[in-house]
Write a structure and sequence with these properties.
By secondary structure, the chain is α/β, with parallel strands linked by helices. The chain is built from 4 helices and 13 strands. β9 and β10 form a beta hairpin.
């Protein structure tokens, strides 16, 4: 439709040029000019059609598979984190969750920030990245509440994760090896669903 509209517009422009030329130069040969314009328009039109067909053939031959939709689901009851790929569970990891006095909030979120070497800051205390860092070796923030932030991260205390304990300040703690694996499979914007069941 756009091509047809474009051709009609060009024909109208050329017609105006011809009419203007007739008033300025009565000896102007309208048929030669019209023949030249038609030939020029038809060759450019043929080139455009050939280009479109060629692009369609190349695109269909090199079509990439659709990227699967990754998402994270966390069960506060079972204390497991599941990584889903197009709705299918592809990995399951034990987690520690928020303590009763600082519970992990249920809800639908998405990863907003990712750090592959997090620095821990708390009450003037700064701990460099590494396995002794309270947030472990990877950090994926998913919810901001006031000045606090909820995240999925590693831990310096793997026993709490192995026990699937409720001990954190509300974040989701994972074993460092597991959080590295998860970190490498998700991006900012990955949905995070925390359920109480």
């Amino acid at each position: 439709m756009e091509l047809l509209t474009g051709l009609l517009a060009r024909c109208a422009d050329h017609w105006l040029v011809i009419k203007r030329a007739e008033t300025v130069a009565p000896y102007f040969n309208e048929s030669k000019y019209a023949h030249f314009c038609l030939r020029r328009m038809s060759s450019s039109w043929i080139r455009r059609v050939a280009l479109c067909i060629g692009l369609a053939v190349v695109a269909s031959a090199t079509q990439l598979p659709a990227r699967a939709e990754k998402s994270i689901e966390i069960s506060l009851k079972d204390r497991y984190l599941k990584l889903l790929d197009s709705g299918v569970v592809v990995a399951r990891y034990p987690v520690a969750i928020g303590a009763p006095e600082s519970p992990t909030p249920a809800g639908s979120y998405e990863i907003t920030r990712m750090e592959d070497a997090p620095v821990y800051h708390k009450k003037g205390k700064v701990i460099a990245p590494g396995p002794k860092n309270p947030v472990g070796v990877r950090y994926m923030a998913y919810f901001q509440l006031g000045s606090g932030e909820y995240a999925i991260h590693g831990t310096a205390w793997p026993n709490w994760v192995n026990l699937r304990a409720a001990v954190s300040l509300g974040c989701i703690r994972m074993l460092n090896k597991d959080v590295i694996t998860l970190f490498n499979q998700v991006d900012v914007g990955t949905p995070v669903v925390v359920t109480s069941k």
